[in-house]
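Subject: sequence -> structure tokens, single chain

Hey, anyone have a minute? Need the predicted structure for the following. Not urgent.
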Amino acid sequence: MGTVLLEPLEVPDSLFAVAFDHEAADGHLQRMTTSSYVTFRSLAADVSALQGVAAWQSAPASVTIDGDQVRADTMLVSGGYFDLLGTAPALGRGITGTDREQRPVAVLSHSFWTSAFGADRGVLGRRVRVRGIDFEVAGVMPRSFGGHASAAVDLWLPIAVAMSGSPGWDTQPRNIVSVLARTRAGESSVTAEGQATAALGSKVAMVPLTGGDVGAQERRIAYWLMGVSTLVLLMGLANAATLLLVRAARRHRESAVRSALGATRARLMTDIAVEASAIALIATGVSLVLSFWLDEGIRAVLLPGIIEQGSLTMRTALAAAAAGLTAAAVAAAVGISSLPRGFRSEDFRGAAGVGSTRLQSTLLVLQTAVSVLLLAGGGMIGRSLWNLLEQDFGMRTSDVLVVDFEQGPGNIPGQDQMFTAALERIRALPGVRTATVFQALPFAGFHVPPISIPGRAEPPNVDQQLPFLIAASPEFHEILGITISRGRRFSEADERGPLVVIINETMAATVWPGENAIGKCIRIGFDPDFDPFTATGPPVPSAAVPCREVVGVAHDVRQRSIVPTGSEGALMQYYVPFSQVPGPPPGLPQGPHIRGLLVRTAGTVAGLSTAVRRLVTGGQADLPYVRVRPYRELFDRQLRPWRVGTTLLAIFSVLAVGIASVGLYAAFAHAVLQRRREMAIRIAIGAAPAGVQRLVLREAGRLTFVGVVVGAGCAAVAGRTLTSLLFAVPPVDPVVLGAAALLMLSVAMAATILPARTAARTPPGTLLRD
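Reply:
Had a minute. Here:
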């Protein structure tokens, strides 16, 4: 799974993403991965070292199929995109021809073809409507193809057709597309970079495509997957070796008899190697089948939004083969090491040997240590996730829905009117307590107009960050549960009354320390004579901008990050009524005033999302997709490392404890069996069965304790390497380590107590006769 994330597509070494390096004011190079369509055409025409070039743009969209609106992740591509990647559609054809010749056709991904069209092979020629344009389905890509990026794509559209409603998109120097390029045979990326830099007059970098689009967060998750999988593989091998040692000990007499009857050591070794290979081959086959069957579920839990790999890839097969060969080698080595040296009387008594006993103990310590390590890691990241979710964000987001359009290029005509018209009807829906409009939200955009305080030379700021403005209706603070510590909330009268403002506690303490902020003056907005085209330096409102009276002080609300690092915990915020939001600089157009709706519900209400979506769109089919989502989804992206880490380690911890339980039970049961004669003698000369049982449990506990100590030490070291992922949890957490140690000791005792109790209660005569 980690390899799938890091390398989502089999690509040749000649395929690159084109990046552009610009020197910043401080002298450092800034790398841009987007450019204009004009630049793309220049690369295609003027760089002879490139065999092919393709432009692309990724964006969510609303797709209308037979009158029903669904959300889809689209990719707009230039002609020859699929040829550049060297992948042909599984059904129909791709997007071909020059951009000026492109027709309104769509190519579907395999997953979208299955979910939206029921895998109908007669889909070719059917119509889908995107961005107000009817596209004809021309092809379906193979199941394992997701494009050049790691993120899932539902359908590909010709960029020239999809962008036809945006005049000047292909002639203006706007950064709207990314570029892929393939070098010619015999040409190096260095040559292509030099030619492209000369043609464009700016520094061009050819970035290898494989895994190049994977961000630091996804790459970290991939390394987790591979690292934890390797740990569990090692644990499984240790468990297999433990079980094989037990099995070999029980077959020791058989091997001695075969040796005495003439079987050579080479023959015995060959039999063991064949048996080990057969077991490993079966296990490898079963793992591949399970991986194929469980792929979708595992991906949905651990890697949501990553492309599907519907068939077994070469990397998957090679990984499984490597694991199988390793398992076969371990099994063969363990079996061969347990062979008798020759025909000796002690071989017929089934002696296990001191060496195998020590190896078995080492393997049990290893399994226990890995289990403790995984349990501790999962516990610490799980506690961090809990602490993140339970911290005070300054607002109450449970049972709050955010309703807005999936953002695309340009503004939506009549957006303000659509939301305003839908508001009252949404308030009347069953299960809706109240609703309001919003322009910006914490974790979902912000507005930072010029601001000044009379009597202060500099605008209020925290590390050069000006306060964030949020337009608020009278219901806004109530819906989000933002408390007003001093003063009052907005009322309906404020929409038509004098200019007013509510500030947060941090702003009150920073701007007016030790004073009462209520009644103070704040100036917000641009001067009437401000010219954005000739101005130098940041604008600062003068006395020409009227004062706004502070009427309330609100509790601080987290604005951008779930982790209050740096200045995040000290940001200033203020609220103004919707009708009093300052406009853009003079001469610039006013954008949509309302971005979406906030809806507070009476809990989970089935079907509410569909009803809200219909009320907003009013039956219009060409609108972008209307998102209706819980507020907490706004910061789910930031929570992803903790969610994945907790889920990942929880799954593997359960697996590890299960594996360890099997190994511990088998090893301790065998140890009891090997000592049954000693136990019979102890009981025969007067030892109490309970005392013998405690003796066995004490020895098992001693062995487990060593494994727990080793695992706790490894967890302490690992905790320090995971410091960036821990929140309000120390790198060495005694609570988590103690819980992990107690759980493993309990597992060891449970695995030992049954065979120990059985042996202790068996009559000594029976044991001695056996």
